[in-house]
């Protein structure tokens, strides 16, 4: 167990969420589960997604996720952005804007190319603003469009 571990409260979709997350991201696995009865549904679990440890619980409809907490996915390039975006959409996720997408379980993800982070760290505020302005017009982040905005500034 890590000192600090995110704890996700699902309505009743913990098992489906774990199956999807561990199938979608490398370095993912289920560490342990507790079931309601011998063959009943999973009610709590400890699992790893992309190397990050999580605890999860089916807490009923009392809790829901909001965009106040999201999971940030650092993508090496556009191909990796496309891969995760497409897997999320195929699973029923709802795209938002600026690289944000809400999975079918209500959890928000930020699918972000590493190049975006590099571009907004530039010392030239005009270039940073141009990249941020371009990002604000996008649903799924597009590296070529971000770089075009950067170079045109």
Account of the protein in words:
The structure is a single chain. Strands 1-4-3-2 form a 4-stranded mixed β-sheet, covered by helices on one side. It has 2 domains: 61 residues, 2,3-Dihydroxybiphenyl 1,2-Dioxygenase, domain 1; 89 residues, 2,3-Dihydroxybiphenyl 1,2-Dioxygenase, domain 1, CATH 3.10.180.10. It is elongated and about 60 Å long. The protein is built from 5 helices and 8 strands. The termini are far apart. It is α/β, with parallel strands linked by helices and 153 residues long. The longest helix is centred in the middle third of the chain and has 13 residues. Strand 6 and strand 7 form a beta hairpin.
Shape: elongated
Give me the side-by-side strand order of the main sheet. 1-4-3-2
Question: Oligomeric state of the chains?
Answer: single chain
How much of the sequence is in beta strands? 25-35%
Derived from helix and strand composition plus strand pairing, the structural class reads: alpha/beta
Write the layout of secondary structure elements.
Blueprint: E1 7-10, H1 14-24, E2 29-35, E3 42-49, E4 52-58, E5 70-75, H2 78-90, E6 94-95, E7 100-102, E8 108-113, H3 114-119, H4 125-136, H5 143-152
Parallel strand pairs: 1-4, 5-8
Antiparallel strand pairs: 2-3, 3-4, 6-7, 7-8
Brief sketch in words of this structure:
34% of the residues lie in helices and 28% in strands.
Which tags fit this structure?
alpha/beta; single chain; four-stranded mixed sheet; 8 strands; 2,3-Dihydroxybiphenyl 1,2-Dioxygenase, domain 1
């Amino acid at each position: 167990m890590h000192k600090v571990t995110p704890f996700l409260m699902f309505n009743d979709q913990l098992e489906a969420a774990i199956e999807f997350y561990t199938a979608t991201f490398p370095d993912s696995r289920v560490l342990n589960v507790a079931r309601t009865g011998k063959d009943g549904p999973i009610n709590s679990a400890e699992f790893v997604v992309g190397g990050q440890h999580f605890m999860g619980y089916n807490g009923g409809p009392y809790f829901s996720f909001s965009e106040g907490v999201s999971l940030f996915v650092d993508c090496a390039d556009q191909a990796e952005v496309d891969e995760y975006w497409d897997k999320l959409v195929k699973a029923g996720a709802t795209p938002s804007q600026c690289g944000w997408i809400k999975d079918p379980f209500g959890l928000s993800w930020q699918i972000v190319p590493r190049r975006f982070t590099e571009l907004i760290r530039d010392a030239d505020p005009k270039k940073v603003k141009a990249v941020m302005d371009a990002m604000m017009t996008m649903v799924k982040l597009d590296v070529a469009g971000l770089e075009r905005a950067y170079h045109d500034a």
